[in-house]
Every structure is written in C-alpha cells, then in structure tokens.
Amino acid sequence: MKDLRALLIDCRIELRKLSRDFQKTELCERLDLAIQNLINAEMAPPRSSEPGAAPEKAQTVSQVALAWQTAARDLKFSDPAIHARLSEKVMRLLEAKTLVDPATEILQLEAEVGKLKQQLAAMEKSMQTLGVERDALLGALATAVPQLKDGGDRLAVGMARISWLKAAAEKGAGDAAAGAGPVKKKVPEPQDTVPGADLLEAVAAGAATLSKEQREWCVGEAMVVSGFQYTPVELLDKGDAAIARMILDARKQP
Questions:
Q1: Measured between alpha carbons, how far is 55 from 75 in angstroms, rounded to an integer?
Q2: What SS3 string covers 179-233?
C-alpha cells in the first residue's frame, strides 16, 4: 500500500504542475480521498480476535493533518470568506505572512538541486583543469631536470627539481660575473662526499640516489642526529630516502 500511496501522491504533484486549477477538479478530491483511505488502512490497528470486541481506531498526526488539509481545500472554493479567516488565523499562529503551497515548495527545491548540480559540475571541471596544468608543469620540470628520476611523491620530486634549477642558475650567475667571489650555493654533484641540502631533498623525495661515499657519510650523520638509536645496518635497511629525511629533519630543529 505504501507504493500505491506514493504513486498517487506523485500523480497529484505532477497534475498540479500541469494544471494550475487542478485542486478545483473532482479528480483532485478523489485522489486526496484515495490517499487518505490508504493512510487509514496502513495505520489501522489489527482487529481483535475476540468476538463482540469493538475495533479501536487510532488517528495519527499525519492523518489528522491531511484530513484538515483536504477539508480546508474544499472550503476554499465552497466558502472563500471562511477559508480566508482561517488562513489569517493559521498564519498568525505560525507568525508567517504567507503559506507556501507544497507543489510550489517542491518546484523551489528542484530548482535548488539544479543549481547545486551546476555548481558541482563547475567544480569538477575546475579540478580537471588544475590537474592538467599540474601534469604539464611537472612534465616540464622532468624535461628540464632529467638528472632526478621520478619518485613516488610527484610534488616532492617537482620541488626538488625546482631547487636543482635554482642552484644551477645561481652557480651560472656567479661564474659569469667578473672576478666573482665564492659561489653561494653549489650544485650537488654525485661525486661529492658530503651531499648538500638540495641533493638530500632529492634523495628524500625518491628522485635521486646516494653514491657509496655519500651513503657512508649520511649513515654516520644519521647515527649522530638520532642519538645513536640505530646501528649502521638498521639505517641501511631503512634506505637512502629515510636517512636523508632524518638528516633534514634534524637540521630543521632549532
């Protein structure tokens, strides 16, 4: 019965949309009566099996409200003056100036849902555009700095490549200056025994690897910064990225 009641309610809503004066028709009254009968049948208590027992009939709030709504709708056309007075009293009790028709409210909600769908589609399109731009930027960085291989964290590798380019630009500017002093920042080279911060960042991001000499130095440095909590074997098991990250984190601490 619930499916039938829902079907009748949907039919009434659609007919109300198609015909402005649908509530004045006999079909509207018949639909309301059928819906009310279905509600009464669903909410009716089971009949007593004892002979001669009078069946009890309980009314729910929704049943009473629907009955009053049906009666008020009929009164609107049979006696508009009384209906207007009742409407004024209801609005005064609700502290409202107007009462929204259920069909109108449904149309308003449908319009709101449509707006939300449009906003969601615009956000998805914007996210797709940002993704394309991000991939293009990371691809350009990969082409500019092929020395660093792609790792698991694409953004971290991209930041490491930017640092690499920045260091290379500073070195080139220092070499071009006449009588240039010492270079402020040296581009990390694989043969350097002591890796710089840029190389450590690249290793931590998984974009570069340490040479044998660099790994030996980093293991000793990691043992010191960790307070000798790990043995060389344990640090080697963690891998180059973990060792580099441990050293970088220790340098960031005050």
A1: 31
A2: CCCCCCCCCCCCCCCCCCHHHHHHHHCCCCCCCHHHHHHHHHHHHHHCCCCCCHH
Whether 37 is in a domain gets the answer no
Q: How many domains does the chain have?
A: 1
Q: Average of pLDDT values for 232-248? A: 88
Q: Note whether 191 and 211 are within 8 A (CB).
A: yes
> In this structure, is residue 174 part of a structural domain?
yes
Angle at 62 between CA 30 and CA 87, to 5 degrees: 75
Q: Kindly report, residue by residue over 105-135, the tens digit of the pLDDT.
A: 777 888 899 899 999 999 998 998 888 888 8
pLDDT digits (tens, 9 = 90+) for 66-93: 777 777 777 777 778 887 888 888 778 7
Residue 183 belongs to domain spanning: 135-252
Distances (CA, A) of 95 to 89, 132, 193: 10, 53, 81
Q: Is pLDDT larger for residue 61 or for residue 186?
A: 61
Beta carbons of 216 and 243 less than 8 angstroms apart: no
Q: Note the helical H segments in 145-188.
A: 154-176
Give the contacts of 229 (CB within 8 A, at least 6 positions apart).
Answer: none
Asked if the structure places residue 47 within a domain, the reply is: no
In a domain? residue 56: no
CA distance 34 to 36: 5
| pLDDT-based confidence at residue 184 (cuts at 50, 70, 90) | very low
